[in-house]
Amino acid sequence: MVGVLLILVCLVVLAKSSDKNEGFHFCLSNIEICRLRLIPKLIDVLTNEHIVFVGDSLTRYQYISLVYMLRHQRSIDPKSNPNLVEEKTWKSWNDFFIQSTTLLSPNEICDCTRPEGKVYASLFFENRYYYDKTHNISVSFIQYVGWPHSESRGHLTYNDIQGLNFTQEHPRDYTSHPVWVHNLDTLFSDYVSNFEHTVSIVVLNFGRWGNSYTSEMISKAIYDVFTLNEKAIFIWKTTTYATEEVVDKSLRHAFDDTDSLFQSFDVVSIMNTSWTGKVNSSYYWDDKHFREPIYMLLNDQLMDIIEEKKREITDSTDART
Fold first, then answer.
1. What span, in angstroms and rounded, lies between the C-alpha atoms of 204 and 191?
2. Which residues contact 256 (CB under 8 A, 6 or more apart)?
3. Which residues contact 49 (CB under 8 A, 6 or more apart)?
4. How far apart are CA 239 and CA 5, in angstroms?
5. How far apart are alpha carbons 296 and 75 in whole angstroms?
6. CA–CA distance from 28 to each of 252, 271, 278, 279 (Å)?
7. Cα separation of 68 and 52, whole Å?
8. pLDDT tens by residue, 295-319
9. What are the domain boundaries of the chain?
10. SS3 call for 189
11. How far apart are CA 61 and CA 184, in angstroms?
């Protein structure tokens, strides 16, 4: 009984914390408490929603952390080896794709293929589609490949995932030739628009890739999302920090003009991840990718943003009626 009361008190303290840095330090010392708080919140915030992540490996792991919690009602154990948020702990890229999809089975399809070794970005693909039938939650990850391509590409069309009948156990043996290729200004209008479960939340980040996107192209993408769903939530996630051990301190955070471009649109919510600059290097497995529970904390922050935006949308709708 005392243990339960202690958890409840800690949950109240954490809920009242408006400082993300404070919440970050609390959760690193109280991982189980934060996990107990987050998992029911995921269900509450995301039921009947379709959240689409667009980004690189920094966003891939946030997606995997999120859907793992939805699938198993627990967070990824940071001590597990191989580990779902550390692709280098697996035998190969193909092993990582197969086993990660198997662990999320039967809820995920993985449009994934990548030759071993260093290859051109045009030769690898990773798009993931997750569905929780019980709560009608769809979560999609669409890989973004940056400069000089600044595009997303894949093999699965909307017909391949229509009906959300995810019975596939392993990734297919795809060729290196994509079926579809889209830049930001066509991705939502020509690809995402065809999903049976209408997109309601978009989380976008270009990671450490450069890009050639203009304000007009970004404006078109935002317009397309709100054309699909006038109550959609569009979130620009700033790029998380690299480890403090990076010699060139200017490379710790990928600041570029894109942040200011998205910040200029009032309808875009900003997920400011600057708190990751305070993450100790022991929570990284290389110079830019985290171990858990950091991705769990990023998803906790994301749920808070979505929750707040939903309240704003509800209040605005009530004011008009």
1. 16
2. 210
3. 137, 138, 200, 201
4. 37
5. 7
6. 21, 20, 12, 10
7. 16
8. 999 999 999 999 999 999 988 877 7
9. 2-7+17-320
10. helix
11. 21
